[in-house]
Amino acid sequence: MRRVEEGLRKTTGVKQAAVNFATEQAVVDFDPAAVSPEQLSKRVHDLGYEVVKIDRPGAAELEKTTISVGGMTCAACVRRVENALKTVGGVKDVAVNLATARATVLHEPAWAGAAGLKQAVTDQGYEFLGVLDELQEDPIAAARIQEIRDLKLRFSVGAVLSVIIFMGSMQHWFPFLHNIPSQPLRMALFVLTAPAVFWVGSRFFIGALKAARQKTSDMNTLVAMGAFSAYLYSALATFFPRFFSSAGIMPHVYYDGAAMIVTLILLGRLLEAGAKGRTSQAIQRLMGLKPKTARVVRDGREQDIPAEELLSGDLIVVRPGEKIPTDGIVRSGSSVVDESMLTGESVPVNKDPGDEVFGATLNRSGSFTFEATKIGAETALAQIIRLVEEAQGSKAPIQRLADRVAAVFVPVVMGIAMLTFIVWYFFVPEPIFSRALLNFVSVLVIACPCALGLATPTAVMVGTGLGAEHGILIKGGESLEKAYRLTTVVFDKTGTLTRGEPEVTDIVPAKNISPEQVLQTALSIEALSEHPLAQAIVNRGKAEGFTPLPVDNFEALSGLGTRAKIEGKSCLLGNLRLMVQEGMALQGMDRQTADLAGQGKTCVLIAEDGLVTGLIALSDVPRESAKEAVSGLKAAGLRVAMITGDNVSTGLAIGKQLGIDQVLAEVLPGDKAKEIRRLQQEGQIVAMVGDGINDAPALTAADIGIAIGAGTDVAIEASDITLMTGDLQAVPRAIRLSFETMKVIRQNLFWAFFYNVIGIPIAAGVLYPFFGILLNPEFAAAAMALSSVSVVSNSLRLRHTGLKA
C-alpha cells in the first residue's frame, strides 16, 4: 500500500494521498484541472493494483467555466489572477495558463457567475475578454493581434528616440553637435526621453504597479525601477547641476540608458508575443477542417444544410472528393476514405455498409450514404480539439528564473540603497545630503536590471536565429528551457520516421515465373486503379520501363482486390483472402506472404488462369535520416521510443530496422497523449516528434512537441519546435542547440549578478574606509553598460556553435 501511496503522490496534479491498509481505500487530494480520477485509476493500475470503485464527493455538483484573460505577462501575473479568482463566491479551484491566456474555473452551480469573475480580474488590472464555450472562437486571438500591433509601434518609436538620445548623450562623439550648448541639449534630452520611458515603456510601469499592489515584484518592477532611476537622476542633474557638483563631482546624465533599457526589453516582449500568438492557431486550424455544409436526405429529397444543423439520425450523402461532415455509419454504397487527418496512416480505408466514418475525413472515390451518429462536440474531430485544449491548459507556465530572483532582488536592492543613504547622511563624518543622494542613486544605477533583463532574451534571440538557419524553428525561450532537460524522445511512425507513402520493396515470383512478368501484370491492372498501393506499383513499373497492357472486363472487388482479363488470360490481383476465396493455386505464396507481413509489409498477390504467379510487397519505408537521428539521440544518452497505430509485428519490424528498442504499438490517435503522460508519470521528460493532426494532442501533452515541416500546419502550430524539412537529424541538433543556449543563459545570469554583487557594495561606499574609493553614478553606469556588453557578447558567441549532424 505504501507503493500505491508514493506512486499517487508523485502523480502530476496530486497534492496529497493517504492509503488505509485496513479499509483498502485511498484518499487523494488533487487538482482537477491537472489530473482526472480516470488518470489516477490508470496510475494505480500501472502500479499493479486494481481500482474497484471511485467515490467523488461533490464532484457531480462542480461545473467548469473557461475565460480569456488579457494583460498577463509573467508568472507573477498568473499567481495574481489565480488568487483573485479563488476569492469569487462558489469557486473551488482555478488553473491559469499564461501561454493560452486562459483561466479554467471549477465552481458550484450556485456561484457568483461570470460577473464575479470579471470583477475579480479587472480589480487586479487585467482584461476580462469573455467566457469560452467549447466551440467558440477564442477572443484572445484578436487581443493578441492588437497587442503585437501596439508593441511594433512602441518599439519603432522607442528605437528612433533611443538613437537620437544616444547621440545627444554622447555629444563629444559627434562633431556636428559640438557647437550646441550643454544645458539646452540636456533639456532637449529630458523632453525626448520622457515619451521613450513613460509611453514606450508604459506596460512596465503598469506591471510594476500591479506587483506593488500585491506586495511583490517581478521583471516589470526591475525594468521600471532601472529606467525611472536613470531618468530621475538625469533630470535632477539637468535642472540642479550645482547640487551634485557641490560634492566635488561633475554631474552626468543617463537619458540614453533609460531609453535603451525600455526599448531593448520591449523588443523581447514583441518577439515573445509573436510566438505566443501562434499557439492558439492550432485550435483554429483544427476547427477549420470541419465542412461548412452537408447534403442530407429529408422528406425523401436531398438538400444542403449548414453542418451545425445536422441531427443525430440524419441520412447524409457524400460524393467523391467531398469531406465527410460528421461521424456516422455507412448505410448504402461503398468508397475509399482518406483518414490520414485522424489516424496519421497514409493508406486510405475501404468503407462498406456497416463501417464507421469520421467527420472531416476525405472521400476519395465512390458515393455513399451514412447515418449521423455523433454530432457537434461528440465527433472525433471535436474530441481531438478538446484534447489539444486540455493538453495546452495542463502545461504549467514556466517560472522564469529572472522573475523568481526579482521577487527577492528588487526589495534587497532598494533596501541597500535606502541603507546607503541613511548611513551616508547620518553616520559618516561631515555628512552631505548630495553625497548621500549620489551614493543612493549609484546603488540604483549599478543595480539596473538591464543585464538581468537581457540575459535570457538575447540568448534566445541568437539561439532561435541560429536554429532557423539550420531549419529548426523554436517557439521562444520557454521551449529551449524545457528541451535541454529531456530524457526521452518519442517518434510517431507514419510520416515522421517513415515517408508516409507506400513503396514497392519486394517482387517475389512463383516457380518458373520471372519478376518482370509479375510486375507487368500488376502494372497493367493497377494502372486503372486510384488506390495508393496501386499508384506505388505503377510508379515502380514505369520506373523500370514497363507500359500497361490492354485490360478487359476490369472489376473492382471491394476490400479484396480486382479482377480483369489481359491478352485473354483471367487475372486476379489482391490480398491472400481473395486468392483463397477464388480457389487459386497458391504455389507457396501464402508462406511468403506470412514472412513479409511479419516484417511489417503489405502483400499484393497476382494470379493468372488459376495460378498465383507471384506477389509484390509494399511498405512505408523509413526516411533516410531516421536511423542516424535515432543513433545520435541514443549517443546523447536519451531514450528513444516509437508510437504507432500499426500492429505489434509491424511496429517491432520498423523499430528493429531503426535501432529503436521501445515500441508502443496499436495506440489509437486519442491514446497517444495518454502514452506520453504515462511516460511523464514514470519521471521522464518527454519530447514527442510527429507530423499529423492526430499527433497534435500528444505534441501538446509532451514536455516538448517537435513537428516535422513536411507535416500538417496544425501539428506545426501545436508544437514547440518545428523542423522545416524532413531531415530527422535536426532533432538531435535542436536538442543540442537548446542545451548550448541554456548554458549561455545561465552564464549570462551569473555575470549579471556578479556585477551587481561586486558593484552594489562599491556603490554603497563599503571600500571608502579602506581605500578612499567612492563610486559616482558615471562609473556605476559604466559598470552597468559593461555587464550588458558582456551578456550580449556571450550570447553572440552562440553563433559559432556547430550544428552539424
What does this protein look like?
The chain is α+β, with helices and mostly antiparallel strands and 805 residues long. Helix content is 49%, strand content 20%. It has a seven-stranded mixed beta sheet with strand order 16-28-27-26-17-24-25, with helices on both faces. It is elongated, with a radius of gyration of 33 Å.
Shape: elongated
Unreliable residue stretches: 275-282, 390-399, 710-714
Report the structural category: alpha+beta
Rg to the nearest angstrom?
33 Å
Rounded average pLDDT: 77
Can you give the helix content as a percent range? 40-55%
**Strand line-up in the sheet with most strands:** 16-28-27-26-17-24-25
Main β sheet profile: 7 strands, mixed
What is the CA–CA distance across the termini? 48 Å
Number of helices: 30
List how many beta strands DSSP finds: 28
Strand content: 15-25%
Topology:
Blueprint: H1 2-9, E1 14-20, E2 25-30, H2 37-46, E3 63-70, H3 75-86, E4 91-97, E5 102-107, H4 113-123, E6 127-132, H5 140-169, H6 182-198, H7 202-213, H8 219-239, H9 241-245, H10 255-277, H11 281-288, E7 293-298, E8 301-306, E9 315-318, E10 327-333, E11 335-338, H12 340-343, E12 349-351, E13 356-357, E14 362-365, E15 368-374, H13 380-394, H14 401-427, H15 433-446, H16 450-469, E16 472-474, H17 476-483, E17 488-492, H18 493-497, E18 498-509, H19 515-526, H20 532-543, E19 551-557, E20 561-566, E21 569-574, H21 576-581, H22 589-597, E22 602-608, E23 611-622, H23 626-635, E24 639-643, H24 648-658, E25 662-664, H25 672-681, E26 686-690, H26 696-701, E27 704-708, H27 713-718, E28 721-723, H28 730-764, H29 768-771, H30 777-796
Parallel strand pairs: 17-24, 17-26, 24-25, 26-27, 27-28
Antiparallel strand pairs: 1-2, 3-5, 3-6, 4-5, 7-8, 7-9, 9-15, 10-13, 10-15, 11-12, 11-14, 16-28, 18-23, 19-20, 20-21, 21-22, 22-23
